[in-house]
TrEMBL record:
SMART domains: TPR. InterPro entries: Apaf_helical, P-loop_NTPase, TPR-like_helical_dom_sf, TPR_2, TPR_rpt. PANTHER family: HTH-TYPE TRANSCRIPTIONAL REGULATOR RV0890C-RELATED, REGULATOR-RELATED. This is Putative ATPase. Coiled coil: none annotated. The keyword Repeat applies. Residues 1-10 have a biased composition (Basic and acidic residues). The lineage of its organism: Bacteria, Bacillati, Actinomycetota, Actinomycetes, Pseudonocardiales. PROSITE patterns: TPR. GO terms for molecular function: ADP binding. TPR repeats lie at residues 662-695. Pfam families: TPR_12 (PF13424), TPR_2 (PF07719). Keywords: Repeat, TPR repeat.
Amino acid sequence: MSRSGKDQDRPVYGGSTLSGSVSGGAVQAGVVHGGIAFHSAPSTPPPVPRQLLGAPAHFTDRAAELAELDEELVENRREGTRMFAVLSGPGGVGKTALALHWAHTARDRFTDGQLYVDLAGFSGSDPVPPEDALGLFLRGLGVPSREVPVEIAEQSALYRSLTADKKLLVLLDNAYSAAQVRPLAPNSPSSAVLVTSRNRLTGLVAEGARLVDVGPLGNVSAVRLLTKVVGKRRVDDDPERAEALVDMCGGLPIAVRVAAARLASRPKWSVRKVVTELSDERSRLSMLSAPELSVQTTFDLSYRALRPTAAALYRRLALHPGQEFGAPVVASVLEKDASRASLEELVDGNLVESVGESRYRFHDLLRLHARNKAHTEDEVDERAHAVRRMVEWYLGGAMAADLVVTPHRRRQVYRFAAPLEDVPEFTDRESALAWLEEERQNLIACGRAAAEQGWWALAWQLSDALWPLLLHHKHYRDRLEVDRRGVDAARRWGNKDAEADMLKRLGMVCTTLGRFTEAEEHLRASVAVAEEVGDRRGSADAEEALALLHVAGGRLREAVGLFERLVRINRELGARRNLGLTLINLGKALTGLGRTDEALRALVEATEQFRDLEPPDPYNQARVVVAQAAVHLRVDDLPLADRTARSALEALSALGSKQGMAESHHLLAESAERQGNTEEAAEHWQRALRLYTDIGSSKADGIAQRLHVDDGPQPPAHGG
């Protein structure tokens, strides 16, 4: 029977001859006809693959990441499983350098060789198909090119067979997806697979791979890298500017290397010269470019890999006024469902960094890149709309918190440009204040952004909405900026009521900071503006702040006279809460004059004003108790002063009021001193000092000086 076509290429098992290529023994079933001849095939073993690229020059530090890889290898060897690690980070962060450095230090543990492939996941062209990479690996393992299967399923099966018992190190560089990686990972428990990718490849992590986040270098390490390239002398000549240079590079190794290359190739240049070049943010990315080593190009390749909605989010989030942001604000610039998926795409692609369970931020250079993309791809109106949506989202959250924490105060009406999405809701004061504190820097930055855009009503509202946080947590340095911007915004807005209110607040914070002349100027201006528009209540509020200035300046009799007048005005206005506040201040001023019986009567009436207030005002109820403790201390009823101050401290601690807690500790310290309890007094003084320092109160200086005199030199107070 004749054979033709492809049948002629197949091994013939029916006779006493065997043609074709086979490996190992062959068994013939049935009757053997004719003689049997044995032929030995060539037994030259395939070469051991050594495909790693060279160890990177100038590799610097990465001790934590290297230790994590060593630990992963040891754990897997102990458990009898293969090592599988994914090094993930933004483009240019040094993932490949880290992988190659570790691979070279560990290669002796993998006696069957090392396989390497650049999968070109972010090269600007199509990623390498896994079948092409498998073909490369199979040939590296000794399979002749003509015998490499065509189909990926057959390639994978052969690859698994060849690597089943080998000690191989496989480095898959620049991977785009988990699907690209899976066929290339050998199953041998003695092997190790190291993957680098700008994406987080969560599919592999879900299957047991260890994710190693690779972030920018710290400043010390980045300066060390700079020194390795340009030489120690030039860095030592100007260490401060060397630190400034790597800071402008954001610790990104590719950026540091480009900046270092500019210096190394220009021996006459100083570090100052390159710092000056990079100081303009608009041109920084283009300056950080060299042949075959460009930060701009590196980021462009990551950007092109994004889907259109994720790319739009990338551009818009770069316009976010603050340094970091929470997930809910994303819905303000992109449709809610799409925003969540797109944000995850940015995180998975290491274009946005996750810094907590629900907080995110850009690397500084990536933010510049994204802003550049926004300016080249989006119209001016589109950019302004995105900024306004984010700023108004923060205002909406602050207003919601304000209504919970300070429900009684007067407010200006604000009309939002569009309905808000995902604005936070609060059920108690603690959660509202916690949100305001978490978003404090963003809210302040939003106020700046609104002023820069000339949105004066919005800028004023953002200053106003911060009142509950500044009332309870103080932040006096922030408050100066917020209140000054609020005054300017009100004037440019042309709203006299808003101007009078913010002038009063600015005068109050200047009083607290000991700037009495400036405080009086603002407060008298507030009274004048309120009277100009016929706002009797606003005028009374400003006069109350003026009376408090008199107290701070030691003009107690003048202050008492003004407080007594304001008590009458608030009774006439039927302003019950304001009356309670004035009575607290009157009681404290009377205590200072030694008129303690009158002070206690004023404070008892203040308690009555707050008792049935709806909604309740627990903060000012607790302030009454602090004032009462001060009266008891003034008359030397120390046991009652202690009990009252401790009651106030408990209430104010629950409310998170550092100012009130500091005042309570202050009273307890004075009482303990009078009773001869020096250790207890010192403890309360220290706690009062920490709290006053945290809020930036001028009272911290007096306590610090007192402790220095009593106990000798003290360590510097933190947080000031």
